């Protein structure tokens, strides 16, 4: 029997939440206690601190941040009160509480920078930034400057800038991260040492060989990176590229790649079966075999989730001209599309191997950005977006939403979204399919089949979806 002395939760509060709430409230109390401790001395500019009887009070921005976090908790409780499905409410509530808890962690990290001061006497680390609240475009610059000391007010911006946890909390994704930091530069403050390393160079001299630091900053949300006044290093024995007709399917010259930061030190290592464990990227073991053309093989619909390129292009005969491939890739999809007079930008990172260099050496267009970045395309411009082996069962639902809506933004009306072999566990399948269905795209091709290459209970999902015309 249950202990009758244990207090019951309110009827509108799902079972199990009191413990979560207690942990969150305890974290809040500890944070506020830390802030109000008389032993702490905040070294900052006079304009951001109030002084009373020789004691330093909290900067106005920090008070705003605390209030914002408190408001979020209140809003969540109100939303939960109106939920009809207890399990759905519990899942959503738990996810968002985790985001708020992470915000407290980030907040505490930012406060640690208050012990030191810059040569000008201001913060070395700042947790709050410009006010992005709605304002009339006719406001003067002076009015905007007066508001620049306020904290963020937009709930959507707070949601976007919070860490996006992986679907399986505590497990790292193939990028080696437990969560994705959206790329708006806010994360640069907590990576000050790496930023300093990246920006330590001699002006008008050769830049350090430090792309690995730059990529680490990008993946952690410090993006776009600050620009530098130094020259990028080139391979000392660089050869001119092959003509486009032969470069698409030819192995690049080793001399055209700087190998100092890769496990493999030449191209033959990347394509050798004997060195599979040293390639640095498990999700694309055959990426560097440029002779492989599995795309053009017609697959059995009952056992394969793949569609052929020609099968997809026939859906929009003559209309597909430009697009984006968001995948761990060396450009094979873009090469096959180029042979069909379609221009594709290949968005990828250098995940232990020279993905971007090889794409360029094939005469294709590499786009170097992380999944947390806003795509550098204008609205309603691309004919097709293709993604494979990148967004799958590791991705959290909120991050997936931001990614899908950015893809929707850059796709033109009646453009195609080709989701190729998205895989996840059986228990998560409906959750992910619901997110794609909520876009309200027309289903042109749709296939769900078991994933048989592993013992885990997983499924492949592939679809070609048509964006509607929204007025």
TrEMBL record:
<feature type="transmembrane region" description="Helical">
    <location>
        <begin position="12"/>
        <end position="35"/>
    </location>
</feature>
<dbReference type="InterPro" id="IPR053223">
    <property type="entry name" value="Prob_Methyltransferase"/>
</dbReference>
<keyword id="KW-0808">Transferase</keyword>
<dbReference type="GO" id="GO:0032259">
    <property type="term" value="P:methylation"/>
</dbReference>
<keyword id="KW-0472">Membrane</keyword>
<dbReference type="GO" id="GO:0008168">
    <property type="term" value="F:methyltransferase activity"/>
</dbReference>
<keyword id="KW-0812">Transmembrane</keyword>
<protein>
    <submittedName>
        <fullName>S-adenosyl-L-methionine-dependent methyltransferase protein</fullName>
    </submittedName>
</protein>
<feature type="compositionally biased region" description="Acidic residues">
    <location>
        <begin position="131"/>
        <end position="148"/>
    </location>
</feature>
<feature type="region of interest" description="Disordered">
    <location>
        <begin position="131"/>
        <end position="153"/>
    </location>
</feature>
<keyword id="KW-1133">Transmembrane helix</keyword>
<keyword id="KW-0489">Methyltransferase</keyword>
């Amino acid at each position: 029997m249950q202990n009758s002395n244990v207090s019951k939760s309110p009827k509108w509060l799902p079972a199990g939440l009191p413990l979560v709430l207690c942990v969150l409230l305890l974290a809040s109390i500890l944070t506020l206690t830390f802030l109000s401790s008389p032993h702490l001395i905040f070294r900052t500019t006079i304009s951001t601190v109030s002084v009373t009887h020789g004691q330093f009070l909290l900067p106005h921005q920090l008070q705003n941040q605390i209030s914002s976090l408190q408001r979020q908790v209140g809003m969540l409780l109100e939303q939960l009160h109106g939920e009809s499905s207890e399990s759905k409410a519990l899942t959503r509530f738990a996810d968002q509480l985790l985001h708020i808890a992470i915000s407290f962690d980030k907040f505490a990290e930012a406060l640690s920078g208050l012990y030191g001061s810059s040569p000008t006497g201001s913060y070395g680390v700042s947790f709050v930034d410009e006010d992005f609240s709605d304002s009339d475009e006719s406001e003067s610059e002076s009015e905007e400057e007066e508001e620049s000391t306020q904290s963020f007010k937009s709930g959507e911006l707070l949601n976007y800038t919070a860490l996006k946890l992986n679907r399986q909390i505590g497990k790292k994704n193939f990028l080696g991260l437990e969560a994705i930091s959206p790329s708006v530069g806010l994360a640069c403050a907590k990576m000050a040492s790496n930023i300093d390393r990246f920006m330590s160079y001699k002006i008008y001299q050769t830049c350090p060989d430090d792309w690995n630091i730059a990529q680490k900053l990008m993946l952690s949300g410090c993006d776009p990176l600050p620009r530098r006044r130094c020259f990028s290093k080139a391979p000392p024995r660089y050869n001119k590229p092959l003509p486009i007709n032969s470069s698409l399917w030819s192995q690049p010259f080793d001399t055209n790649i700087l190998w100092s930061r890769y496990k493999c030190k030449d191209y033959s290592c990347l394509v050798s079966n004997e060195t599979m464990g040293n390639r640095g990227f498990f999700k694309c073991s055959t990426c560097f075999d440029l002779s492989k053309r599995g795309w053009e093989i017609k697959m059995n619909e009952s056992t394969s989730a793949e569609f052929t390129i020609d099968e997809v292009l026939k859906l929009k005969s003559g209309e597909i001209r430009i697009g984006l491939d968001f995948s761990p890739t060396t450009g094979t999809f873009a090469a096959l599309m180029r042979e069909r007079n379609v221009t594709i930008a290949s968005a990828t990172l250098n995940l232990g191997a020279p993905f971007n260099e090889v794409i360029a050496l094939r005469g294709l267009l590499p786009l170097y950005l992380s999944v947390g970045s806003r795509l550098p395309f204008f609205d309603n411009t691309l004919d097709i977006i293709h993604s494979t082996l990148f967004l799958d069962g590791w991705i959290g639902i909120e991050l997936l939403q931001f990614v899908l809506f950015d893809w929707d933004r850059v796709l033109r009306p009646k453009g195609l979204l080709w989701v190729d072999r998205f895989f996840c566990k059986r228990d998560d399948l409906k959750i992910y399919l619901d997110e794609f269905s909520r876009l309200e795209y027309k289903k042109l091709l749709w296939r769900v089949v078991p994933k048989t290459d592993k013992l885990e209970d997983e499924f492949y999902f592939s679809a070609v979806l048509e964006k509607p015309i929204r007025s």
